[in-house]
Write a structure and sequence with these properties.
Blueprint (H helix, E strand, L loop, with lengths): L24 E2 L11 H11 L11 H11 L6 E4 L2 H12 L5 E6 L4 H8 L3 E6 L8 H6 L5 E7 L11 H10 L5 E5 L14 H7 L3 E6 L12 E4 L2 H9 L8 H12 L2 H23 L11 E4 L5 H10 L2 E2 L1 E3 L3 E5 L3 H16 L2
Parallel strand pairs: 1-10, 3-4, 3-5, 5-6, 6-7
Antiparallel strand pairs: 2-8, 7-8, 9-12, 11-12
Helix pairs in contact: 1-9, 2-9, 3-4, 3-8, 10-12
The structure holds pyridoxal-5'-phosphate.
The site of pyridoxal-5'-phosphate has 13 residues, from α3.
Amino acid sequence: MSPDVRNDLDAIPAYVPGATVPGATKLASNETTTGPLPSVAVAIGEAASGANRYPDITARALVERLADFLGVAPENVTTGCGSVALCQQLVQAVCAPGDEVIFGWRSFEAYPIITRIAHAVPVQVPNSADGSLDLDAIAAAVTDRTRLIFVCTPNNPTGPAVSRAELGAFLDRIPDRVTVALDEAYYEYMRSEDPVDGVVEAMSRTNVVSLRTFSKAYGLAGLRVGYLVGPAELVTSVAKMMVPFSVSSLAQAAGIACLEAGDELRVRTDAVVAERGRVRDALLGMGFTVPDSQANFVWLPLGDRSAAFDEHCGERLVIVRCFAGHGVRVSIGDPDENDRFLASAKEFVTGM
Ligand SMILES: *Cc1c(COP(=O)(O)O)cnc(C)c1O
């Protein structure tokens, strides 16, 4: 007989990563197509020679550099093994068993998983028809048991971002005892009017935190480092939940180098933003419905046709991310990769 384990493990969904198929075009995980910025690659190489030593457990140098970069105090920043780890630490820090965590749906697929892991209860609020978060419905879903709300902006996988005015009105409706986490994994790709700066929001409220990452625009998905900015007491609570040494010395060095790379990042994100517009326009021209995206992917709300579209693209060696019955998310790659995807999409609509 095997040892006793939690009796709710079957209720915890598995995280489904984007598939990697040798030789195929991978547009399934919102990665950058190029490696780290050259200056960052050098810093990683240098850090590798010290890998026999444990990393700084508090990532002090990175935290101080981030604080300086963001214009906040070091007490307002903590780092984690990717921002997904910080999402999990946050749930663990604020929720007791049975407490509720609210988020839009669809949204980041890790939310229900990390909520269940912490013995808390996920409350999923359907998005509006245009793929944007329904902030009114989220505010209306708050109960006495609510401890945390994830606002993913831009929203993964649907794309739209919340405006600053909308967010302000929403936050005014949320009781101070409830923490609101602004998940800004795609912050660097936003080019919207009246954009939210989660760090500014986090510094002007007592119950708001911002989560950002080096995985997406900075191209360090394989190194695992993200950060959380918020009121000092919340930051301390979240940091307590960290698995010791979970931000490696390579990740710390790479994060610091990223912040020193300056304009190099903007050039890269501008290129992705231009391609995002081109891909979306082409899809709209083919008759697809495509919500406005402020991230490095587009969303096709294909409903029942999602699996067929996914299969169709896969047969043409273009790997997209299917959420069966809901839609398909397609990352923005290089122009030639995007062309391969658009050719597949075109064949799908013309039934070839
Ligand atoms: C990718 C992603 C993250 C986290 O990425 P990490 O690699 O763990 O930093 C967090 N939130 C959303 C919405 C994401 O899409």
